[in-house]
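quick q for whoever's on today - can somebody do inverse folding on this one?? i tried earlier but teh output was garbage lol. tokens:
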């Protein structure tokens, strides 16, 4: 529902700052004390999250955003629980945000502020380089960030099962680059969090399309997708999305050479996580 100008906004969950200015908010010693009161490791469930940055005046912004929550208190463990409950979440950012008490508009361009504890979830690793969202203006009201801490899961959990495919190998931060041209079927880039199941769906659809095309042409064989490599791409340390490579044979990733990063037109591209899957059963491509 669209908010009308000067409509009251939810009360904040964090203490107000006096004087009520963006500069005073970002210097509030209470907020900085909260950010610095937590250890570098946050246990949660069967794993733990490791600190990536601490007490920044900016929150993370990149393609792998999932969702956010408003918390009742500054609690990295509570934010970690939120991340645990979301299947694609691998990192979280907790911070304090200066928000307007009224919807800014012509009659109330710069209302009094409220403060909220926010927990943002991410489907990739985060780093100090990603904490670049320092706020924005809504009319004359300046939204700013303080006490921003970022944590990433210390180890990637094995990906969830993918229908029709069996998890083959963990290639760590490398991607298959030396497979022969005769086995390579194509690629697809999908912006957002790391989600190899989308590569599985793409592979299944591509096999079906190749099979139907062969039937239409009266061919006796087609090109099936018998394996794929799904890896996560970073551009200059910013999360971008999942890159899918399809192959008509079962690719042995341990024998294929890989690369961790490359530079193209001045930008550095790197791989954050990479797995291969093989079709189960293998498809002989015969009609």
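ok took a stab at it. sequence:
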């Amino acid at each position: 529902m669209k908010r009308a100008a000067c409509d009251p906004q939810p009360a904040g969950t964090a203490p107000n700052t006096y004087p009520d200015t963006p500069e005073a908010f970002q210097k509030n010693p209470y907020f900085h004390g909260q950010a610095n009161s937590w250890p570098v490791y946050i246990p949660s469930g069967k794993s733990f999250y490791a600190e990536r940055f601490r007490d920044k005046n900016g929150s993370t912004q990149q393609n792998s955003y999932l969702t956010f929550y408003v918390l009742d208190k500054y609690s990295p463990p509570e934010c970690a629980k939120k991340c645990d409950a979301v299947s694609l979440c691998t990192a979280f950012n907790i911070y304090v945000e200066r928000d307007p008490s009224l919807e800014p508009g012509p009659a109330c361009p710069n209302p009094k502020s409220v403060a909220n504890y926010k927990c943002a979830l991410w489907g990739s690793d985060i780093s100090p380089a990603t904490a670049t969202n320092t706020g924005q203006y809504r009319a004359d009201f300046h939204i700013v960030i303080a006490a921003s801490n970022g944590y990433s899961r210390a180890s990637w959990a094995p990906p969830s099962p993918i229908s029709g495919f069996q998890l083959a190998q963990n290639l760590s931060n490398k991607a298959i680059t030396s497979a022969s041209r005769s086995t390579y079927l194509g690629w697809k880039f999908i912006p957002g969090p790391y989600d190899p199941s989308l590569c599985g769906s793409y592979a299944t659809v591509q096999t079906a399309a190749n099979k139907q095309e062969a039937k239409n042409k009266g061919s006796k064989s087609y090109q099936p997708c018998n394996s794929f490599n799904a890896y996560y791409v970073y551009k200059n340390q910013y999360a971008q999305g999942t890159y899918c490579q399809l192959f008509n044979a079962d690719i042995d990733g341990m024998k294929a050479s890989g690369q961790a990063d490359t530079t193209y037109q001045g930008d550095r591209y790197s791989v954050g996580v990479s797995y291969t899957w093989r079709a189960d059963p293998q498809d002989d491509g015969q009609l």
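fwiw The two ends are 54 Å apart (CA to CA). also The mean pLDDT is 93. so keep that in mind when u check it
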